[in-house]
């Protein structure tokens, strides 16, 4: 070992590890602990409705489940008795679990294009007589009496454009007041391009939730 390397080693032993490295590893540890407790909390709630749902995501990355706390913070104060709730792209049905958990006993629709996923969700929730799972393209299957439509980034921009167009048609036909709750709102331009939609962007920032994903509450008043 040359002399300079020896000096560096001695300096490192005296000074201890780089404080930057310590801070980075404790931040990483905190982050992993938060992820672990979020997964455990979500799994425990899933169990009350049959079985844990996280594995669905590992089988198909397009079918990720939202986080219960994040959902709660988006729904509290925004749902009323008499609403007809629609999860657009319901996947394994965690959003439906959350609505049931909040005591909602009105009509709930889950729309899912993946046949096997839709069948599994329908089977799991078969005893909930207010829940209907419709298999197929959500835009084609949108219930015209829906008042709250939830989306967790299910579509690309093109499909979102079809969705926003269909929502306007439903509003014209039925005249209901409609709220769209859009978690991880990647495609807002179809709504921005029509002044009939009012958009409020929100970020649920609860400790221990996913990431406080960017979300939007989009409303369409009766007078369109
Ligand atoms: C990110 S997952 C969200 C699952 C659930 N809503 C939640 O928040 O836990 C999106 C789901 O939308 C479904 N999906 C994508 N395009 C669809 C379409 N055109 N019609 C119906 N479902 C669709 C996917 O198969 C997937 O299950």
Characterize the structure shown.
- This protein is an alpha/beta fold.
- The chain has a domain of 155 residues: 3-Layer(aba) Sandwich (Rossmann fold).
- Helices cover 44% and strands 17% of the residues.
- It is built from 9 helices and 7 strands.
- Helix 8 links the parallel strand 4 and strand 5.
- The N and C termini lie far apart (80 Å).
- Bound molecules: S-adenosylmethionine.
- S-adenosylmethionine binds next to helix 5 and strand 2.
- The site of S-adenosylmethionine has 23 residues, from helix 5 and strand 2.
List the topology elements.
Blueprint: H1 3-15, H2 19-47, H3 55-59, H4 68-75, E1 85-88, H5 94-101, E2 108-112, H6 115-124, E3 131-135, H7 138-141, E4 148-152, H8 157-174, E5 178-183, H9 189-192, E6 197-202, E7 215-220
Parallel strand pairs: 1-2, 1-4, 2-3, 4-5
Antiparallel strand pairs: 5-7, 6-7
Overview in brief:
The protein is α/β, with parallel strands linked by helices. The chain is built from nine helices and seven strands; from the N terminus they run ααααβαβαβαβαβαββ. The protein has helices spanning 3-15, 19-47, 55-59, 68-75, 94-101, 115-124, 138-141, 157-174, 189-192, and strands spanning 85-88, 108-112, 131-135, 148-152, 178-183, 197-202, 215-220.
């Amino acid at each position: 070992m040359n002399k300079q390397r020896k000096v560096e080693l001695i300096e490192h032993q005296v000074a201890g590890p780089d404080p930057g490295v310590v801070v980075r590893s404790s931040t990483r540890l905190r982050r992993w602990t938060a992820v672990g407790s979020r997964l455990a909390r979500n799994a425990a709630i899933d169990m009350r409705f049959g079985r844990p749902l996280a594995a669905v995501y590992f089988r198909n990355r397009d079918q990720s489940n939202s986080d219960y706390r994040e959902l709660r913070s988006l729904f509290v104060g925004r749902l009323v008795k008499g609403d007809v709730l629609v999860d657009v792209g319901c996947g394994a049905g965690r959003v439906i679990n959350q609505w049931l958990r909040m005591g909602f006993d009105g009509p709930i629709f889950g729309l899912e294009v993946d046949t096997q996923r839709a069948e599994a969700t329908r089977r799991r929730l078969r005893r909930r007589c207010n829940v209907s799972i419709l298999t197929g393209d959500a835009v084609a299957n949108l219930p015209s009496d829906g008042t709250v439509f939830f989306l967790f980034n299910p579509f690309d921009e093109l499909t979102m454009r079809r969705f926003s167009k269909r929502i306007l048609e439903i509003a014209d036909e039925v005249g209901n007041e409609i709220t769209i709750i859009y978690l991880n709102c990647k495609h807002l331009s179809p709504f921005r391009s029509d002044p009939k939609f009012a958009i409020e962007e929100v970020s649920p920032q609860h400790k221990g939730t996913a990431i406080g994903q960017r979300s939007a509450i989009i409303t369409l008043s009766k007078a369109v």
